[in-house]
Amino acid sequence: MTSALHRLPAVTLDDLQADAALQTRVDRKYVVPLPTLGGLLDELDPAARVLDIGGRRTFTYRSVYFDTPALTSYLGAARRRRQRFKVRTRTYVDDDLCWVEVKTRGPRGTTVKDRLPHEPAASATLTDPAWSFATTVLGDERADRLDGPLRPTLVTTYDRITLHVPADDGGPASRTTVDTGLVWTDPADGRERALPGLAVVETKTGSTPSSTDRLLWRHGLRPVRLSKYGTGMAVLHPDLPATPWRRVLDRHVEPAAR
């Protein structure tokens, strides 16, 4: 995978954000065995470029997810409620940058992400500005369903590669992220579970599938329902309802880990 990654031309963060920010998008997720990943990178669209910042092409992410005492966010996703949402902080570990992010559902199955700069040292806390921002983005209908203060319920860490495919005659610009080394941690007691030997590949496009989606389909890989928050909570707390992620849990997470 490393050799394929370094053969790709680079794209800067500014160019990526200008051409394919995609804060409102359709997300498709795939679970890909690591031995398969290098070959897939070799077959990417020739126009594909990889995010490069200061010579680095792999970046460590740490996300802290927040939920209510009754797990309103988790259960909204598990039960496929229309007004479901996620609130998290995301830390770009290599650059010591942090954001508070709120993800909601838009029209026709799109994901809408709003974010605000956050203090990295306070990544496990929703400060007053972060709380005000989150409730404003959630709006009255979602905020009224909160049964109590949001508290940290899950931490995820992983390494990410970001690929950019510029727009062409076949469709708009798209992004693909490749996450490896995923670890879920319960912030209450420090229990950990990992997803060894597998990458989570996510395409972020408009309504039209990207060339990366079509490449994955040709290799027999199909989108799966996988939420880092939902799946991680289900792994660490097997008593929770987990119907949307059952296929991923049964196929890709070791039974002994659950």
Automatic annotation (TrEMBL):
Gene3D superfamilies: VTC, catalytic tunnel domain. Residues 25-237 form the VTC domain. It comes from the Bacteria. InterPro entries: VTC_domain (IPR018966), VTC_sf (IPR042267). Pfam families: VTC. GO terms for biological process: polyphosphate biosynthetic process. This is VTC domain-containing protein. It comes from Cellulomonas biazotea.
